[in-house]
Amino acid sequence: MSVNSSPDQFHELMVDDEPNLSDVMACVFGVQEHEVRTYQTLLETPASTVEELADELGRDRSNVNRSLSTLREKGLATRKRRLLDGGGHVYQYTATPLSEARELMHETLDEWTVAVHHRIDEFDARPSE
């Protein structure tokens, strides 16, 4: 995993006395505000379908689907297939519990920090020309 943030996001996070979950998740995971909102909605309504989330968030189903794909890639959501009585199936999504997401944020930042320290150590001692 890697931190996918801009220097501006890090700067804003460092100077903010009380960054919120959205700010930290955006910085650490490189996710957008609407993806954080999707995650927070999943925390409140586990086992939601894309259609239910789209209605709750007031967003198009295809956009919600993309948000869910991103959250799953980052380890912030899971998907489970549920068979329907009349045949077929539907996917239900659940957010990774906040306690696990916090641990994932710590791990991601720790990995990034190690990588940056290694990169700093690789800098040539001679001034650039």
Automatic annotation (TrEMBL):
A Pfam family per the record: TrmB
Family annotation (InterPro entries): ArsR-like_HTH (IPR011991), TrmB-like (IPR051797), Tscrpt_reg_TrmB_N (IPR002831), WH-like_DNA-bd_sf (IPR036388), WH_DNA-bd_sf (IPR036390)
Protein name (database record): DNA binding protein
Location of the Transcription regulator TrmB N-terminal domain: 28-95
